[in-house]
From TrEMBL:
It holds the Pfam family DUF4254. This is DUF4254 domain-containing protein. InterPro entries: DUF4254. It comes from Chryseobacterium phosphatilyticum.
Length: 204
């Protein structure tokens, strides 16, 4: 089983596990061994799955404004955790390929392996939920037909993205691509970088 096949299997197991309770407050129960790649991938998708449903909840037009504000802050915190974990996954790949010497003409990819994995995790969620809609008995035939067409596109995208990720990893391993990562350096959660936060602190 290659990397993306493993990742896709883990992502779908995580999504299925979440939907047993289908509650954003459910605590993660990661079934994989400590320090294993599968455990990291499961943790990544759990964050994405919970955030997917938080994004659904906050779009309720009748939501209480105070609850919406709290949800927005929860989503912001989730985004930070997501970014941190993506960077952790890239560190895992850096360690994996630390003994690889890039070729003199090695190229640099516009996207690191972990950010591509991030897209694959989100895609697993899209496929899961679009499949539900394509088979929802309470929906009209037209709705199910339209959703099946979208699902077909998503599944094609899954195949293409998986191939691209596996090719990227092979190119890094063969020295054809130089793996280079940058921290995202998000500013909105940092009290020293977000002017709204640090100006508020100066006013105290």
């Amino acid at each position: 089983m290659n990397f993306t096949e493993t990742a896709w299997k883990v992502f779908n197991q995580c999504i299925e596990d979440y939907h047993v309770s289908d509650d954003v407050n459910t605590l993660i129960n990661n079934p994989f061994e400590k320090d294993s790649l599968e455990r990291i991938l499961y943790a990544k998708n759990w964050i994405d799955t919970v955030q997917w449903h938080l994004e659904d909840i906050i779009r309720d037009e009748n939501i209480d404004p105070a609850e919406a504000l709290q949800l927005k802050r929860t989503i912001d915190a989730s985004n930070q955790k997501r970014t941190d974990l993506v960077e952790y996954i890239d560190s895992w790949f850096l360690n994996k390929f630390e003994n690889i010497t890039p070729k003199p003409d090695a190229k640099i990819n516009t996207e690191t392996p972990a950010w591509a994995v991030d897209r694959l995790s989100i895609l697993a969620l899209k496929v899961y939920h679009m499949s539900l809609e394509a088979h929802r008995e309470s929906a009209s035939d037209e709705h199910r037909k339209n959703c099946q067409a979208k699902l077909d596109v998503l599944l094609t995208q899954k195949e293409d993205l998986s191939t691209s990720i596996d090719q990227l990893l092979a190119d890094i391993e063969n020295g054809n691509i130089k793996m280079k990562v940058y921290k995202q350096m998000k500013m909105y959660n940092d009290e020293s970088l977000n002017p709204i936060l640090y100006q508020k602190g100066q006013q105290k």
